[in-house]
Amino acid sequence: MAACLLSALPMVLKIDRAQEGDRVRLALSGDLDRIHLVEVERFIDQQGEPGGGIVLDLGGVRLVDREAVAVLAQWQAK
Fold first, then answer.
1. CB atoms within 10 A of CB 7
2. What strands, in cross-sheet order, belong to the sheet with 53-64?
3. DSSP state, 41?
4. Do the strands 23-32 and 13-20 form a parallel or antiparallel pair, or are they unpaired?
5. Which one of 14, 36, 49, 54 has the lowest number of neighbouring Cβ atoms within 10 Å?
6. Which tens digits make up the pLDDT trace of 33-73?
7. How many angstroms from the chain centroid is the CA of residue 73?
8. Cβ–Cβ under 8 Å, residues 44 and 78
9. pLDDT class for 5, splitting at 50, 70, 90?
10. Greater confidence, 2 or 9?
11. Rounded to the nearest 5°, which phi and psi values hold at 47?
12. What region, left, alpha or beta, does residue 21 occupy, with left being phi > 0 and alpha being psi -120 to 50 degrees?
């Protein structure tokens, strides 16, 4: 029964923003799935001036689904 209750809980992602010189660090914590990628991408689009950079700190991420891994790999390749 507990497994059913756990699977019904929504996945949560927290994004903390910190300015570090000319870079912005986005520290993610929680669960990262395709739904959360929309929010992360929105944060990325809103950040930084040209010439700066964005660092994604994934140290607090507990779970990443396959689609999120693929998107992160695409972002890294840019």
1. 7
2. 13-20, 23-32, 53-64
3. H
4. antiparallel
5. 49
6. 888 888 888 888 877 555 568 888 999 999 898 998 988 88
7. 12
8. no
9. very low
10. 9
11. -95, 155
12. left
For residue 49, the tally of other CB atoms under 10 A from its CB is: 7
Residue type, 47: Q
- Tokens representing residue 18 in the block: 């910190």
Of the candidates 46, 54, 1, 48, which has an alpha carbon nearest to the alpha carbon of residue 28? 54
CA separation for the pair 12, 9 (Å, rounded): 9
d(CA 32, CA 35): 8
pLDDT value of position 1? 38
pLDDT digit string, tens, across residues 40-51 = 888 888 775 555
